[in-house]
Write a structure and sequence with these properties.
Blueprint (H helix, E strand, L loop, with lengths): L4 H31 L12 H5 L55 H8 L1 H28 L7 H23 L5 H18 L16 H36 L16 H34 L7 H21 L6 H24 L11
């Protein structure tokens, strides 16, 4: 079927609208850092439900860097001693309890309202940007009558859409809006580069990609890459927050000041990054397996050590190493996150360098 060029232009227009809305959401998230009113986190020790959730990612009532730590829990199976509720102590001037990732017992909409106007505006803009971005990807697919990730431009626009949708879910579920300025900012940069540097008009696929496996293999790789994109940004934030916490612990910086004081604790960011990679890793594994099956149908072999295949396998090994390192007590923290970021670097090298500049059977980037 011929390409619907008019619908292709509509897709491009929606992408530009999404880019503008995302940019405004980043401004709103930044405004919350600069002018928002911090909210006191609910006490993590109130109620049995909060105590049961203390070890999970969702138990996000931990105090910020420099705040007093919660009392240690008793042995497994023992009940926490009852204590009368004490009135909250007033905050010291210049210090603020985090208004992000509060106790999950608070409904999401109520938590957003309590977070202040800046967060409300930022979340509304993020949701509107996701809608416009999704419409852009869908209309691109309708314009070309296929899955809308047949070249580099379509792949980047689709993976950034996945990243924005996934992180919007994370912000709502875990109240992680103080991380929005970093993740949504990265989405803006990636989408802006796609629109300016590698834009490709709607067109037909090369013959080698005209297979139903495009909707299976490349879809899985797109979903996994979008999720790994979010994990990479969270990994960078973790390293910055960990460095700040170490400086405070060593007495080289004052606690409770700057951007880092408004972020969740390093433990919360670490768990969120770990679970994000855990969510994306099986999808990436399925994509690699589906690619091998497609290769057997197209070229008569499951694996031929083509450059793209090789780097996809290297990426898989690095993310598997991160999951193993994160589950090993001696390799938690910064060293594990270095492995995760190395895996994302391998992934980006495969997309931006191998597929563009190295000749192989997967040279379908569409970038001249």
């Amino acid at each position: 079927m011929p390409v619907n060029l008019a619908l292709g232009h509509v897709s491009t227009d929606f992408l530009i609208v999404a880019l503008v809305i995302y940019s405004l959401s980043v401004v709103a998230f930044a405004g919350d850092f600069a002018f928002g009113r911090p909210r006191r986190a609910a006490s993590a020790a109130t109620g049995q439900q909060a105590r049961e959730r203390a070890g999970a990612l969702a138990s996000v009532g931990a105090a910020s860097v420099g705040a007093p730590a919660a009392a240690p829990a008793g042995p497994p199976g023992s009940a926490a001693p009852a204590a009368p509720a004490a009135p909250a102590a007033p905050s010291a001037p210049g210090s603020a309890a985090p208004d992000s990732m509060p106790e999950v017992a608070v409904p999401a909409l109520r938590a957003i309202r309590q977070a202040g106007r800046w967060v409300q505006v930022a979340m509304a803009l993020s949701a509107a940007g996701v809608v416009a971005h999704t419409v852009a990807v869908v209309t691109r697919g309708l314009a070309v009558h296929r899955a809308p990730w047949g070249n580099m431009y379509e792949f980047v626009t689709a993976l950034t859409c996945v990243a924005a949708i996934f992180f919007l879910f994370v912000m709502i579920k875990y109240r992680a809006w103080t991380l929005g300025v970093f993740v949504m900012g990265a989405v803006v940069v990636a989408l802006g580069l796609a629109e300016t540097l590698i834009y490709t008009a709607a067109g037909q696929l090369v013959p080698a990609l005209q297979s139903y496996w495009l909707s299976i293999h490349v879809t899985a790789m797109t979903l996994a890459t979008g999720i790994f994109f979010v994990a990479a940004v969270l990994g960078v934030v973790y390293l910055a927050a960990d460095r700040s916490a170490r400086r405070v612990a060593a007495g080289r910086a004052e606690p409770g000041h700057g951007i880092m004081s408004r972020l969740p604790s390093v433990e919360q960011i670490d768990r969120l990054t770990y679970r994000t990679v855990m969510f994306g890793f099986p999808v990436w594994t399925f994509g690699v397996i589906a690619g091998a099956i497609w290769a057997d149908q197209a070229w008569g072999r499951y694996w031929g050590w083509d450059p793209v295949e090789t780097w996809a396998f290297i990426t898989w090994v690095l993310y598997a190493a991160f999951l193993h390192a994160r589950a090993t007590a001696g390799w938690r923290g910064r060293r594990a996150h270095y492995i995760q970021l190395l895996g994302f670097t391998s992934l980006m090298f495969n997309i931006l360098v191998v597929q563009v500049f190295i000749a192989g059977l997967h040279s379908y980037a569409g970038v001249s």
